Amino acid sequence: MSTIVSPSLLSANFGDLKSDLAMINQSKCEWLHIDVMDGVFVPNISFGFPVLKYVAELCEKKLDVHLMIVQPEKFIQEVKALGAYTMNVHFEACPHLHRVVQQIKEAGMKAGVTLNPATPVSMLTDIIGDLDLVMLMSVNPGFGGQKFIPHTLEKVKELRALIERTGSKALIEVDGGVNRETGKQLVEAGVDVLVAGNAVFKAEQPLEEIEFLNNL
User: Fold this and answer.
1) Active site residue 16
2) Are strands 110-115 and 193-196 parallel, antiparallel or unpaired?
């Protein structure tokens, strides 16, 4: 089975976004990863729904929306209105995580939960059976272009074991510092979905880069 590649919009050229989205549409990637940041949960601000409405109109791929924000449950309907495939919230931002996951599913989207680098996989034991996706941050969230944290590979293996032990259907996604080398290591450890930002959008041949990651 091929690896799902989810190029990260955060690394696109916002001066020529239409061209980058046309490239995504031509590529073999299945998803487009969208990081929404609020400057509160993470120390940066990315883009809001007026921009994402335009992206949703032009992008033919499934939208993989990752909310790096406080109180993400407030925006379930806005994310749904984009036609998003997945809505991904942070474990650390949701004191009532089970409720938020159920609300995402009721809105007709796949429910994902993200763990920051310092949050252990064991925190998901009681909810893993309800999840469609778990994303492990392999950098500290908030900025693109950071270096991959090697310990993520052990977390992937631990998460894969938890999924198999519980019979969960959740996919494993990793975001941060993904390139050809780390991508190969991650897939070998059990990852289903690779989020790649600079590796794709800063590549001389982005279509070839996506195809390479897709075939890992």
Assistant:
1) no
2) unpaired
Active site annotation includes 35: yes
The share of the chain scoring above pLDDT 70, in percent, equals 100
Q: What is the pLDDT of residue 142?
A: 81
- The single residue of 35, 38, 64, 132 carrying the catalytic annotation is 35
Q: How many Å apart are CA 195 and CA 88, to the nearest integer?
A: 13
Q: Is the pLDDT of residue 209 over 90?
A: yes
| Mean pLDDT for the stretch of residues 127-141 | 97
Please name every residue paired with 67 in a beta bridge, in sequence order, or none if there are none: 36, 89
By residue count, the chain amounts to 216
Owner of token pair 């272009």: 145
**What average pLDDT does this structure show over 170-194?**
98
3-state secondary structure of 84: coil
Other CB atoms closer than 10 Å to residue 203's CB: what's the count? 16
| Whole-number percent of the chain with pLDDT over 90 | 97
Q: Which of 20, 64, 175, 192 is catalytic?
A: 175
Cβ partners under 8 Å of residue 105, min gap 6: 111, 130
CA atoms within a 13 Å half-sphere pointing along the CA-CB vector of 32: 28
**From residue 123, how far is each of 114, 128, 193 by CA, in Å?**
11, 9, 21
